[in-house]
Amino acid sequence: MSSIAGGGLTREIGEIFYKQLKDTEKLDDAGYVLEELVESAASKVKACTAAGIPYAINYRSTRDPHDLNFPNTVQLIGSAIGEKGIAVVREGWAKLKVVNNNAAIVVGDPIKVSATAGKVDKFVPTAVGATNSGDVSTAIKTRIKEVRTVVGFAEENVAAGSGSAPGADKVLVKLCIGAVGINA
Q1: Quick one: what percent of the chain has pLDDT higher than 90?
Q2: Which residues contact 149 (CB under 8 A, 6 or more apart)?
């Protein structure tokens, strides 16, 4: 039986799909924000930096499922995982890793990528206080760049600084990755 090309959605909303992981990258837990890059002529993902554009969230860690240690301690890197890649999501809800020194987060707060690779924190925009048109234009461009780092909105409260506490280092987020896709 053959398939019909162009017959609708390629993925259902919230569906898991697979992306290759950067050759030297490893992820110790699920819930990291990932950005896209090209490596060895292939589209791959890695933990998103504060200057990166969020692409997806990893669904599982890269810990070796065949490691006989408990808990398993061996983490595979992208080149060991191979072409199939890792499970990622772009839509729906996800528990995201919170930066260690996070701000207090309440339901409805916008959540952004932090300076710590792949982790998130509450989005607090910089003030636009310039008075002349050249300064305002620069401030608006800065705000657009900031907004593109927003990955969603908090669905639960997280106490300030709880990102370093085991079991309390994640926040449930309604994802809106790619709502602002400006690259400049």
Answers
A1: 36
A2: 50, 52, 53, 54, 112, 113, 123
